[in-house]
Amino acid sequence: EKPLSGPDCRKSFNHSSALMVHQRSHSGEKPFSCPTCRKSFSRKEVLTRHQRIHTGEKPFTCPTCWKRFDCRSTLIVHQRSHTGERPFTCPTCRKGFSQKGHLTQH
């Protein structure tokens, strides 16, 4: 059971910090600001990822081909090009896709 929930929706959380972050999606509060371009974000980790645009940092490396990425999720999708993994399957025709968005477009 998740005992904490906010006044704006029925979503519930185990930790008050998670509820607080979620409530920003309703309030529009964006307390984390990029010092380079002043763009603001509701979560610190999103600001950190954004800042890689300015620094060019790519901390995630494919162990197969050594290509580098600024975001872990992008690396995971890329790795499917090596493994052939297609975790998203159309329920109608059973065709598999490597990305959820490709299934949605299908």
Task: Describe what you observe in this structure.
The chain is an alpha+beta fold. The chain has a domain at 60-105: Double Stranded RNA Binding Domain, CATH 3.30.160.60. It contains four helices and eight strands. It has helices spanning 16-27, 44-55, 72-83, 100-105; strands at 4-5, 12-13, 32-33, 40-41, 60-61, 68-69, 88-89, 96-97. The model has no long low-confidence stretch (mean pLDDT 93). Residues 4-31, 32-59, 60-87, 88-106 form the C2H2-type domain. It comes from Centropus unirufus. This is ZN583 protein.
Characteristic terms for this protein:
4 helices; 15% strand; Double Stranded RNA Binding Domain; alpha+beta; 106 residues
Radius of gyration: 18 Å
Our estimate of the beta-strand percent is: 15-25%
Number of helices: 4
Structural class: alpha+beta
Indicate the mean pLDDT: 93
What distance lies between the first and last C-alpha atoms, to the nearest angstrom?
36 Å
Strand order of the largest sheet: 1-2
Please identify the top-level CATH class of the domain at 60-105.
Alpha Beta
Largest sheet: 2 strands, antiparallel
What is the helix fraction of residues, given as a range?
25-40%
The CATH homologous superfamily name of the domain at 60-105 equals Classic Zinc Finger
Family: Belongs to the krueppel C2H2-type zinc-finger protein family.
Pfam families: zf-C2H2
GO molecular function: DNA-binding transcription factor activity, RNA polymerase II-specific; RNA polymerase II cis-regulatory region sequence-specific DNA binding; zinc ion binding
Domain C2H2-type: 4-31, 32-59, 60-87, 88-106
